[in-house]
Amino acid sequence: MNYKLLGRSGLKVSELCLGTMGFGTEGGWGADAATSFEIMDAYTKEGGNFLDTANVYKLGTSEKLIGEYMSNHDRDYFVLATKYSLKDNTTNPNASGNNRKNMMRSVEESLKRLKTDFIDVLYLHIWDDITPIDEVMRGLDDLIRQGKVNYAAISDTPAWVVAKGNTLAELMGWSQFIALQVEYSLLSRTPERDLIPMAKHFGMTVTPWAPLAGGALTGKYLKGDKGRIKPESNRLNERAEKITRVVMEVAKELGVSESHVALQWTMSRGFSCIPIVGATKVDQLKDNLKTVDVQLTAEHIAKLDEASKFELGFPGDFFKEDGVKMNSFGGFYDRVEKR
């Protein structure tokens, strides 16, 4: 794989990130220790160095397995990303949330499970709508100054919160978010309304989770494999089926798998994007890694865009209406005929 810079930093990461949410067998599914090690071996062999986990994945087992693997490999080769926010124990009222107390406790626990002295990228996992963003930014910057974290990132948070955080950090001389993790795929393009434009503005890399929509875009649900998906899921509706069939058509034309098409689409959007590829089987990962050798034509991308189009809503669609033109100041819009 090739390497890309992660956001506005000098950190070099592989163009596909390995998602490890399935490392562990808690809940009746996932990869056992031996398989998890094989998956990391296969990923590393192909040049992969970017691993994504979280303190709550498989009740901490994911971090523990990565820690065991790291203890027998070159820790500095890997860029290890983990997350804090979600409740990982029931010992106290602050065992969840974005607050500083939970942040510091979670990081210390993650460091122990990961058997490392530092975390390369620490994500705020999900916005709690309680903690002031200045508390978050100051806490992350303190961790970075202490050498326990190298870079800050954020996941599943409104665009205005992220923008406020990065602006505040810039003014205060604190570390800014360099990556944004959100659900993004051909079935879930709504981040294009605000989140992705915001990320582009701040030079953040987008790291999509579920870029294959839980496997829906591989066509497996159309072939009868419903797995653990709920019948009411939006990955099983008429729109999802329509988009998936177009993915299957493009894959057939190119002679590649459907996952290659869906993943490469996210990597061809005109902004810094590194999809997170989860795997619980070695063969599954090896197939997905072949995505880097696939190229979509402009016609293929246009076909996929058309099949997956959605409403931007206001003000996105408003800006695209007839009669809206750039005035001489540039960057401002005037209604020239429809007022």
What does this structure look like?
The chain is globular. The chain has an eight-stranded parallel β-sheet, with helices on one face. Strands 1-2 form a two-stranded antiparallel ribbon. The termini are far apart. It has a single domain (3-308), classed as Alpha-Beta Barrel (TIM Barrel), CATH 3.20.20. It is an alpha/beta fold and 339 residues long. Helix content is 36%, strand content 14%. The protein has helices at residues 33-45, 61-70, 100-114, 133-146, 159-172, 195-201, 238-254, 258-266, 282-289, 298-307, 316-320; strands at 3-5, 12-14, 17-19, 50-52, 79-84, 119-124, 149-155, 177-181, 205-206, 276-278, 324-326, 333-335. The chain has eleven helices and twelve strands. Helix 1 packs parallel to helix 9 and helix 7 (238-254) runs antiparallel to helix 10.
